[in-house]
Design a protein that fits this description.
This protein has nine helices and no strands. The chain has about 260 residues and is mainly alpha-helical. The radius of gyration is 21 Å and the shape is globular.
Length: about 260
């Protein structure tokens, strides 16, 4: 087994323990707020960061900025998540002192559970963002997109897929604005060898990391005259391997595959 294989499990477990310890040292109302804020921040970020990245790419970056562009889908969601979380805390801070303080065994148990949920949500969100980092497709064997290939027992349960499924479920089958079914790009693969559904999000980014790795390898190994002749297209158009493949909305008249 890869000597680094259990690192994601250890980090995830450490995050859970740290979240529980912090929750037990906090008030129940504060712990409840942080759990709710973590959930809302995750949902808002996951449903908006891809359009935001695409808008930023078109407005601020040139094709020559490809080594900046490929990190947009990793950096922007982290910044957006942090800003949303800070905005929620700014709204909560003025009323924090006026909230009641609850004590007792039941409150302690509740704090521990809410702390574990907060840590789990944060860990799952970070695992989702890890899929957008432009590195090896399988993270050098540590975090492959197929959950049955993940070496650690925690990663094998795929907390990131659980949060993606929760996001899809909460967003609803139909958008109240467009009236169309809403998904994270819709399912790219309806099943796999293990009979489980593979959502579009991890499939799209796994394919992108694969294509991007090939593109960058060819770019580094082509002679200068080949690059100047345009054999390698470094544009940031949606057809370029520099840009992650976008999901497509499921048409309202299509049958729901679930």
């Amino acid at each position: 087994m890869n000597s680094l294989a259990l690192i994601p499990d250890m980090l995830f477990g450490g995050l859970l323990v740290a979240a529980v310890v912090m929750a037990l040292r906090s008030r129940l109302v504060d712990t409840t707020f942080w759990m709710a804020a973590m959930l809302l921040s995750s949902l808002i970020t996951l449903t908006t960061f891809e359009p935001l990245c695409d808008a930023m790419r078109k407005a601020f970056f040139l094709p020559a900025d490809l080594f900046i562009v490929i990190y947009l889908w990793s950096v922007v969601p982290l910044l957006e998540f942090s800003l949303v979380l800070l905005a929620m805390f700014a709204l909560y801070a003025p009323i924090r002192e006026s909230t009641p303080e609850l004590e007792g065994a039941a409150a302690t148990i509740a704090r521990g559970i809410l702390g574990a949920l907060s840590g789990y949500l944060l860990g799952a969100f970070l695992l989702i963002i890890a899929q957008t980092v432009p590195v090896d497709r399988n993270w050098w064997g540590v975090l492959p997109p197929e959950k049955h290939r993940r070496p650690g027992p925690i990663m094998a349960t795929a907390p990131d897929y659980q949060l993606l499924t929760l996001t899809e479920w909460i967003a609803g089958r139909r958008s109240p604005i467009t009236g169309k079914p809403w998904r994270l790009g819709g399912p790219a693969v309806g099943f796999d060898l293990y009979g489980e559904r593979w959502e579009s999000f991890p499939a799209r980014y796994a394919l992108w990391r694969e294509q991007l790795g090939t593109f960058l390898f060819l770019s580094d190994n082509l002679p200068e005259d080949a690059e100047q002749s345009g054999d390698i297209d470094a544009s940031t158009d949606k057809t370029s391997p520099v840009v992650p493949p976008a999901g497509e909305d499921v048409s309202s008249d299509e049958e729901d595959p679930i």
